[in-house]
Amino acid sequence: MPSIRIALVGVGNCASALVQGLQYYSGCGSEKDCVGLSHLFLSGFHPKDIEVVAAYDIDSRKVGKDLSEAIFQEPNNTPKLVDVALTNVVVHKGSVLDGLGEYTKRVVHVSDRPEENVVRTLKESEAEIVVNLLPSGAVEASRYYAEQALAAGCGFVNATPNFIASDEAWARRFAMAELPLAGDDLIDQVGATTLHKTLLRLLSMNGVHITQTYQLDVGGGTESLDTLERTKDIKRTVKTESVESALPYKAEVVAGSTDYVDFLQNRRDSYFWIRGVHFCNVPMQIDLKLSTIDAPNAGSVLFDVIRAMKIARDRQEKGAILPICAYAFKHPPKQVPLEAAEKMFAEFIG
Ligand SMILES: NC(=O)c1ccc[n+]([C@@H]2O[C@H](COP(=O)([O-])OP(=O)(O)OC[C@H]3O[C@@H](n4cnc5c(N)ncnc54)[C@H](O)[C@@H]3O)[C@@H](O)[C@H]2O)c1
Fold it and tell me: Cα of 217 to ligand 1 centre, how many Å?
């Protein structure tokens, strides 16, 4: 298969898991020999067909280093899972803009190297798809890299909760440029939002009437620190809307991120509480905790999104691609129930 040439914006924990996953699965020949992916082959594309050809960050410990080394630099704290071979991709210095908040300024050391010309370097690397893995508070910076992707003729994947794919004006611009766009806010493989929605759906299908439910989480990655200061509200809105869409009726729903606990490192602990009534109005209650490591939780879904975006590019599909957005993101241009989104995606990838 031809390689899928991607550029990474933000060499943080998610990028680390993605690059480590590319190494980990590169020699994997059959589904039964490797676990952890929803698709080893997706429309014929294997993870080893994904090639990172450019990367951008602003931290002095990452800029100027080979990607294989940059992903293991602090403040990244997702675990090292494999040794990564030299990639020959040197991390470029990007534009800082609003990439850092007051809290993350304490842990990210901004490089004093000059900024690279992003459009030129994207074109030189022949990148086809830009994957935006910036902190969630980087609103202006996310828009800036979306502009650079448009100017360089690249598709754009927005893993952050900033509204790009779900913003009509951006979707129209990508459609006019005949480029695919996917987002916003990636869904995890075993994420709190998916688990919560699945539980609510199961309960409501069995006749339970949910009256109130909440989902709260704490984490120790830099992203949780940024959330604490800058994106608690947007994350609460996105997650709550997504969870509400799992119920066929209105209930009191709160879903959000609560705090940063540094010693958790890249772990995320999510708590769920569900209250409802079932037969003869008898009350029931569920109290659950899910513990995951955050960045690897994004890996399988990112692999699917990148390969599906390649298919979209090859078919000259343009603008926000709903089957990809609805399957893999919490805030797609239109909320689609879980099973319908999975069916749409399966039909899309063929
Ligand atoms: N499971 C998951 O990890 C998951 C799930 C859904 C969504 N997301 C989203 O993915 C994004 C990335 O998450 P993460 O945990 O990797 O975050 P992170 O904080 O570990 O990484 C962000 C990286 O971006 C860099 N950066 C900051 N400003 C920049 C700029 N202007 N230009 C270039 N680089 C810049 C930082 O130095 C850092 O290396 C977040 O928006 C998060 O909400 C992650």
Answer: 18
Q: What is the pLDDT of residues 54-73, one digit of tens each?
A: 999 999 999 999 999 999 99
How high is the pLDDT of residue 113? 97
Q: How far apart are CA 186 and CA 200, in angstroms?
A: 20
The token pair that represents 95 in the structure block: 């534009």
Determine if ligand 1 sits within 6 Å of the CB of residue 131.
no
Determine the atom of ligand 1 nearest the C-alpha atom of 11: 39
pLDDT in tens, 94-139: 999 999 999 999 999 999 999 999 999 999 999 999 999 999 999 9
Q: Please, which pLDDT band fits residue 32 given cuts at 50, 70 and 90?
A: confident
Q: How many CB atoms are located within 10 Å of the residue 147 CB? A: 15
Check: CB of residue 62 under 8 Å from CB of residue 10. no
Strand order in the sheet with 92-93: 92-93, 50-57, 4-9, 129-132, 155-158, 180-182, 319-320
Distance CA 329, CA 268 (A): 19
> What's the pLDDT at 258?
86
Alpha-carbon distance values, 22 to 47, 49, 70, 276 (Å):
6, 9, 15, 43
Mean pLDDT over the full length of the chain:
96
How far, in Å, from the CA of 136 to the mean position of ligand 1? 7
Ligand 1 binding pocket includes 12 (Cβ within 6 Å): yes
* Cα 115 to ligand 1 centroid, rounded to whole Å: 19
